[in-house]
Design brief:
Layout: H1 3-15, H2 18-25, H3 29-43, E1 48-51, E2 54-57, H4 59-86, E3 91-98, H5 99-116, E4 120-127, H6 129-138, E5 143-146, E6 155-169, H7 182-187, E7 189-193, H8 198-209, E8 218-223, H9 226-234, E9 239-243, H10 244-252, E10 257-258, E11 265-273, H11 280-288
Parallel strand pairs: 3-4, 3-5, 7-8, 7-9
Antiparallel strand pairs: 1-2, 5-11, 6-9, 6-10, 6-11
């Protein structure tokens, strides 16, 4: 049984005439007759009785008609759903992001995409860089956005924006007044992001670039968010290494100062799985970045 046979049967049943049904379907009368005969032959049931010069549904045809209509309706709904997804009238997109990206860079872009495509639902999973990469790797997220280095063969990484991790302290901190030297970095007391975060891995690379290892630093606190690290630095005595995006409101309010230490920029990166299919919504989100 095919959908085409069902469509022909329903049209003949509604019009009570083979020729008129054929005209409505833009088919030959022989094609219509053959389709009805194929249904009857396949299931051994007469669907129509000849009444004068026309035809009428048999008892079997009357029982079959609502079922045939229901199947055609479901098929039309399935086609409509597929067309909606293709045209981005509906869909679902899950994004995984490391904390700096999730808090300061990605939400505005998600909001603009949601406004342009109101039928597509968006969900964000926030964690550190390692957790975001794992979400894309396992298929829990369609796309990943991270600030840390990811070296996983199954994942493709593409730079999409730039950021900088700088050093921040309270305005009255002893290191707030002069350029920092390596010995100043070693003498400072630190609050750092947790191991596994993109901010932490980038900070370690920056320190290595000036000949300082994290093992040489006096790390008093390790905290799981930029906000927590900044709050600890604001309380006094500690130096925090966090994104300029995260620190900007506190600097503007005079609650923290950026220390005189030149750090190189880092890239925010898009992660995609090399072997997983990208949905139309995922491709559209990437295109709109």
């Amino acid at each position: 049984m095919t959908l085409e046979q069902l469509r022909i049967f329903v049209e003949v049943a509604q019009r009570g005439h083979m020729t008129r049904a054929a005209e409505a379907l833009h088919l030959t009368q022989s094609a219509v007759s053959a389709a009805v005969a194929a249904l009857e032959g396949r299931y051994g049931a007469r669907l129509f009785d000849r009444v004068g010069r026309g035809i009428a549904l048999s008892a079997a045809g009357q029982a079959f008609l609502p079922e045939a209509k229901a199947v055609l309706s479901q098929a039309e709904a399935a086609v409509a759903a597929l067309e909606d997804v293709t045209a981005l009238r509906r869909g679902h997109l899950t994004l995984a992001a490391s904390q700096t990206v999730a808090s300061y860079w990605l939400p505005g872009r998600m909001a603009r995409f949601a406004q342009a495509h109101p039928g597509v639902s968006l969900r964000m999973i926030a964690g550190n860089t390692a957790q975001a990469a794992e979400a894309v790797l396992t298929g829990a997220a369609d796309l990943g956005f991270v600030e840390g280095l990811v070296e996983v063969a199954a994942l493709s990484r593409a730079a999409i924006a730039l950021d900088r991790v700088s050093l921040y302290a309270a305005p009255d901190h002893p290191l707030a007044a002069a350029p920092l030297r390596p010995q100043d970095l070693r003498a400072a007391v630190w609050v750092l992001r947790e191991v596994g975060s993109g901010t932490r891995s980038h900070f370690e690379q920056v320190m290595a670039g000036v000949g300082v290892t994290v093992r040489e630093l006096s790390v008093r606190l390790e905290l799981p968010s930029n906000e927590a690290a900044l709050a600890a630095a604001e309380a006094g005595g500690l130096v925090a290494a966090v994104s300029d995006l995260a620190a900007a409101p506190l600097v503007a309010a005079g609650r923290l100062v950026r220390l005189a230490f030149d750090a190189p920029e880092r890239a925010f990166a898009l992660l995609t799985h090399r072997q997983r299919h990208r949905s139309r919504a995922a491709m559209a989100f990437i295109a709109e970045l």
